[in-house]
User: Fold these one by one.
Assistant:
Number 1:
Amino acid sequence: MATHERPITAKSVEGGDDSGFRLPVIWRRTLGELTLSYVPDAGVDMIPTRVYPASAEEDWRAHRTHMTEAGHLPMGCGALLVERGGTRLLIDAGHGRISGADLEHFQHAFGHVRDLPESLATLGVDPAELETVAFTHFHGDHTGWARPDAVEDPRSLFTKARWMVGKGELESVPPGTGPVLAGQDERTVVVTDGTEIADGVRAWSLPGHTPGHTAWILDTGDGREVVAFGDAMHSPVQVQHPDWDVVLDTDRKEAERSRRRLVDHLARDGVYGFGVHFADQQLGTVDASGRWRAWSDADVWNDADVPAR
């Protein structure tokens, strides 16, 4: 990989947690009948107290290993490729063609770790062949390459995919802003809580961050499951602080209720989570101490080699 794609590691901090941090890179993991591939697109350094306005600077001392040496909170942006049996679909569509020149007030820096089309090519996936893209919500860092202006082709990068969207999300788009997704009126399928959109893939309504925010529960085929929970949580620290709302939550009380439901669910045996913004700790679970435990080499995953380019 190119130099800018090498993991960035933090120094160990005495008395804090030991999970470390990095911007994400491509990975592929197999669990039961389920194969997951992370498709990186962008990386962002956040200003912690602005992302989490309920937190104070002193609250972050116990979480320094999640942060850069300059005190910023790294987050990744990308998508999750899901394969199970004959099913192949994408969850979310990355950040898209955003220059990063105009930062939000809660961002310190933005840059492409690797463009999502390049990442898909590395994984041997032709986006034109994907028939389904399921969205957690309509924020721009999740709809990027599916937007009408994503590429020269007005059908977006995913020329024939259907868009799976949680009930209530279409109504969250301000009037007069135009379609969020390419061919939105013709290609969008609105799904309710519990709807199975493919074999072993079903919707779980977790509103609050946006009205129709939806997690996707992925059945491994052997009694376990992985929850791709989008922006229900933005970093591992929220597992310990579900009361910390995110600056972009549209309904803070509802978002906190959803986070608490999610954390309780992830603490069950055989339930794992995928947090798209969790830097290099996207896959993990909630352990007995109530903390996020990211997967390590000691965990029982069957790693498949990422195809060479």
Number 2:
Amino acid sequence: MENILLAHPYLIAVICAAVSTIILKLSQTSKLNHIPSFGHSTWLGSYFAAFKYVSSAPQILQDGYHKYKTTPFKVATFNRWIVVIGRHHLEDIKKSPDNELSLVEASNDHAMVDYLIGPAITSNPYHVSVTRTHLTRNVSHYYPDVADEIFTAFNQNLDLKDNEWKNVPAAATMREIICRASNRVFVGLPLCRHSDWIDLNSRFAVDVMKDANFLNMFPKALVPFVANFVTNTANGIERGMKYLDPIIKDRLRFMDEYGKEWSNKPNDLIQWLIDEREEFTTRQLTSRVLTMNFASIHSTANTFTQALYHLAANPHYVQALREEVEAVVEKYGWTKDAITEMRKIDSFLTETQRFEGVLTASVQRKAMKDITLSDGTFIPKGTHVLVPTRAIHRDCSCYDDADVFDPFRFSNLRGVNGENSRLQMTSLTQDYLSFGIGRHACPGRFLAASELKTMLAYIVASYDVKLEDDSSPKNIHWELNVVADPVARVMFRKRTGN
């Protein structure tokens, strides 16, 4: 069966799309008739619309956003209709409790977490509160370790000699460096540098999205059956257990002997999770650690790879960034305070997220009961709603020349408006939604921003970069996912001259 699924993906997709369309029409469309469809709403039309959505979701949502700017509209996907709402509905999103509009349930349906990693992740997402409590509030404390790992990882991965240019696969290399930096906090030394642990987590981040995209081709009723033949993530968990089992058993033994505190107690994600006393088995805790890695690596690596492509394609950006980095590091050293002062570095990455992004829509919710939005729009239970982030980020009423990549857009605005925290990378505003909105905004964004800014600052301070050839790397779009060009190569050389 598995061979059949893998050998005939297009045939399977056709069958599933046809079945899904019929199910959608019978079970959902009548409840959403009051919301206009962008594209076709007939059985056959929505069949083709769902296929088109897979590779063209950004353009579909962009066109729908401009056509129905103040009115919700719906689009067809393989296994559901999605209702697209606008900026004026963001207050509805922020005010609605989880039992009305749920991010967790929407994310679960999109990433198929229950089937790929395990239902405990969504039924008890205590790792989110752990992130807020231990990680977000202590980014400055962990920064020296994170910076050290980034510098070491670059030097070891690039291994440059004298004045040579060396080309590397950009996406894979940046993913490995980010994996090491995050795992310096998650599992500590020496495991964060173990080549197989790095490979495992890098692959796991890719496999979850790949497997989820595959499962999303099937009607919900068939997903539990098909998931039995999608084993990449299950194998990853088994592989991870081999590394974490001895660590976890040692930690539990120390806790049994000494209670919650003992001499030289580790201060990492593994220990934070154990201290919560929510889960105790190696499988449970391994799944939780890999989930955190997936959340960290997938989005952060994509963002940085996109930024690196812009930098390599435009060497004239390097000098402006380099001048800022050198001046700030001379004053503060390589510290968290220094990274905070690098406004152009922050702006470059903020603009990358605005212009590119890793999701076409970063604000997604699932209606857990029948609700009515503030403008009177009725949303029936079970409906997925989203805000078209990319369309808002490319809206000229929100940003001047919104279709132009302007690396210093945000630092220039901060210069005009004075010190304005609402223009920083980690900001949450109605015009900048890369990290979500409200109480469910990404809790790991402060660690991610520190990693991203340190990596960019270190590159411009230490290397010259350029694209391998004149080709322009292109993002890959699959439904709402935006993946930085996975095969493009970037050339590095030790910095020469000023």
Number 3:
Amino acid sequence: MHPFVLTTLIFSFCSVLSVDASKTLMGFSIDLIPRHSPMSPLYNSEMTQTELVKSAAMRSIARSKLLDFIGQNESSSPLPSPPSPSLPSPPSSSSSSSSAESAITPVPDHGEYLMRFSLGTPQVERLAIFDTGSDLSWVQCSPCETCYPQDAPLYDPTQSSTYMEVACDSQACTLIPQNKRDCGNSRQCIYLQQYGGSSITIGRLGSDTVNFGSTTGQAATFPESVFGCAFYSNFTFEISSKANGIVGLGPGPLSLASQLGEQTGHKFSYCMVPFSSTSSGKLKFGSYPSQSPTNGVVSTPFVINPSLPSYYLLNLEGITVGQKKVLTGQSGGNIIIDSVPILTHLEQRIYVDFISSVKEAFNVEAAEDAPNPFEFCVRNPSSMNFPEFVFHFTGADVVLNPNNMFIALDNNLICMTVVPTTGISIFGNWAQINFEVEYDLAARKVSFAPTNCSIY
């Protein structure tokens, strides 16, 4: 499809979903719940902070491997056609012979932040994973042929007076890639969402009223929001029984961010808190009043790679470490900005130059017993001078402090939050802590504003 035609479809679809202009919301803010905090139903009180950090780091590595697989798969061959909607029979993870798939290590859960919302009429509260690397939002629905166990009852669309199935010849259905959709026996739209390897969810595309309990006390309600009603879930990673699905805030036309675009000025932002914070993060839509200073805000364009269409890609021109600048020598989108992994992953060639500059700036011996998956750790940080770190994106120099670049572990050990990858580079969420990160889908840019997110 010609890019202009696709863009026209996207904006016309968003217009179809929008409410009357007189009802346009100025903006609203909701809580982002860190999965590792006592506020989270996923919190494990028996784990130490070091164990929690290591667990999050391993999920970060798994995310990188998933991205590597998806990029190779999308660019080399189409995805398999969705199975029959009457009796789904997708491949099991044990039957796969692909070396790329077997490299994906099953890890507990997926995502580092959770969010609550309500669906349907009457309202049913759901707890879902917040993900800027997904487009279609989905929940598990009843009846379900194969679903992962969840504590809350499955969502039953027949009990909602505002639920409607989406037809397979509708505009919303045609926005799903052709090799990821099918037409059901009753002409309902069937989708297939793949997360890498054999990790897939299949369901019917539907629309219903979505409600967010704003932190200001004023609820934000959006009728006829399109989402996936999953009746089959098969993952190589385990999703917690506390989570009921995923909320996608990617750049695609079916993401929540795109669907709310006309009512929220095509903008959303998040503010992620430090690991030790007792506060929740915040997710903001539209022009909800910002507490970030107007000075110090920098912006950079984002691009969309056809091989990774659900991700925002920035162009990283270089990284300054102290007095030395490491150049990437690349143009166009070369690094994903991602809300899920805590670690920043750099392509091997860039990482080698980067870590060489780090060792030169510190002028200390690296710890030989760096715990997996960390690559560079040092002891006794109080005796060291930390260099300045600046990530130079096109048009935006993002200055990171030591808390963005290092994680404190046991035995007076600190480890760098940057690791090498064999796939595409990723700007992880630890590097984004205490920034208000705003996505402007209309202007196609991402902005960074230094902020104390714990009081945001």
